[in-house]
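Re: weekly structure request thread

Next one in the queue (171 aa):
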Amino acid sequence: MFSIGIIIKANKNVGTDLQMKHFRGMAMFFIIYLLSDIFWALGQSGLIPFNKTLNKVTNATGLVAVALLTLGWCIFVIYRIDQNKSRNMKKLIRIHYIIAGIDVIITITSIFTGFYFYIDNNDVFKFAEGYNFHIIFTFIQLFGSGIYSFMQSFSNKQEKSEKNIVYRSFL
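Done, posted below.
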């Protein structure tokens, strides 16, 4: 409910159109993750009909949503920090999309390969050893955008130019 409110209320006052597009996307993927998790919990507990295929699809949907939620957050942060659209920023964004794309492809193929997860003989979801790659991909994205934000905090030209404008207006 909160995420829906955030999507509806998110407007230009918080950022540019592009920033808000990523922010709303992030909130949308959070909702998808929550819904898939709720559906999975209801199915695992036997409250709704649930079979092995639904279990796989529900879990894959949740993991894809996490990958895209992370991507949305990182791109939002990068656009908020580097509004000058530097060459480094564009490279970093491409890297984020590539990492998320690889993660999503592996997640979807895990339905068939069991690389990230599998459903055991009792129809119970289990993480496979390959799931560590999903964690690593998520960490790389969050850490990468965090490091970029940290580096930009020391060289943000827009912030420095705004301070100069304010300083000069007092003179």
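Residues 52-81 form the longest helix (30 residues). The chain is about 75% helix and 5% strand.
Next request, please.
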